[in-house]
Amino acid sequence: MPWSTISRTILALAGAVLVVYLLNRGVYVGSVTMLNTPSGLLVYEKRCHYLSPSGVRDIHINASLDEKSTQRTFCPLLGN
Predict the structure, then answer these.
(1) Which residues have C-beta within 8 Å of that of residue 70, sequence separation ≥ 6?
(2) Cα→Cα distances 59→2, 11, 33, 40, 45, Å
(3) Is it the case that residue 17 has pLDDT exceeding 90?
(4) Where are the domains positioned within the chain?
(5) β-strands 55-64, 43-52: how paired?
(6) Closest Cα partner for 48 from 56, 36, 39?
(7) Against a cut of 0.70, is the pTM above it?
(8) Would you say residue 3 has pLDDT above 80?
(9) Do 28 and 49 form a contact (C-beta atoms < 8 A)?
(10) 41: helix, strand or coil
(11) For residue 21, what pLDDT is reported?
(12) Which of the four pLDDT bands, split at 50, 70 and 90, describes residue 73?
């Protein structure tokens, strides 16, 4: 069954709306586990990096005293 021009246009419009929505939320591009010492304690935190139209955003999650438990934490695919 051949695709009509109207169905191709609707499909392209839906794809464009999906891409704009994903970029607006922020798409996961990577993470890093860092050592943070705000009060003299050795605390590890995971920073998730998200690509958005305004640039790359960092979201800090899972502050922990153990590096391995911090590394095992997963970042969500879409930022908040």
Answers:
(1) 33, 44, 45, 46, 62, 63, 64
(2) 46, 33, 12, 22, 10
(3) yes
(4) 26-80
(5) antiparallel
(6) 56
(7) no
(8) no
(9) yes
(10) coil
(11) 86
(12) confident
